[in-house]
Write a structure and sequence with these properties.
four-stranded antiparallel β-sheet, 181 residues, 52% strand, mainly beta
Length: 181
């Protein structure tokens, strides 16, 4: 469980606290967690990306250059990182970066959430669009959604299979989209 001062772990009977502090000694605000191959837990914090190995009681600051990551998705050894810096992914050795859509305010470049589709694509939200990343080709594709409201700000989504999605918006409700139609 991601918290404002580290991680809590619930094993079905009791809750344990795993406090985390940054390099400066301040408590870390943890926004999201994911588990990668080899039971490596990654934490998106207000001070960058941290990694905790299985059985370890110490978090390693692996990517301090990632500013305010907000969402994570692990696929094998690769961790996809949602932040204001665009599409980021870390293969355990190197950070890779692709801009999503740069606006004057930079808000359109924020990757808000990731999910892996049944099609093997990595799906993610930017401010106004649903996007896909193909790990095999390295290509991204943007999908303008035909929603019955003008410029809805997308907040969360779920892959429902066969290019169907549930998409939540800020102030405009939940929509169901079929990209195959």
């Amino acid at each position: 469980i991601a918290t404002n001062s580290g991680i809590n772990v619930y094993n079905g009977r009791q809750l344990s606290t795993f406090p985390m502090t940054g390099d400066d000694g301040r408590p870390l605000v943890v926004c999201d967690l994911c588990e990668a191959k080899g039971w490596q837990v990654y934490a998106a914090t207000d001070q960058g990306l941290y990694r905790i190995g299985c059985g370890s009681d110490h978090a390693e600051h692996v990517l301090p250059e990632v500013k305010n990551p907000i969402s994570l998705l692990a696929v094998g050894d690769t961790v996809f990182i949602g932040s204001e810096q665009g599409l980021l992914f870390y293969d355990g050795k190197q950070l890779h970066h692709t801009d999503v859509d740069v606006s004057r305010q930079g808000l359109d470049n924020i990757v808000r959430q990731y999910d892996r589709g049944d099609d093997g694509l990595i799906w993610f939200l930017s401010r106004f669009d649903l996007n896909s990343y193909d790990p095999k080709t390295g290509r991204t594709q943007r999908y303008k959604l035909n929603l019955p409201t003008e410029n809805p700000i997308l907040t969360q989504f779920a892959c429902l299979g066969n290019l169907r999605f549930a998409v939540g918006t800020h102030g405009n409700g939940l929509f169901f989209c079929d990209l195959a139609a």
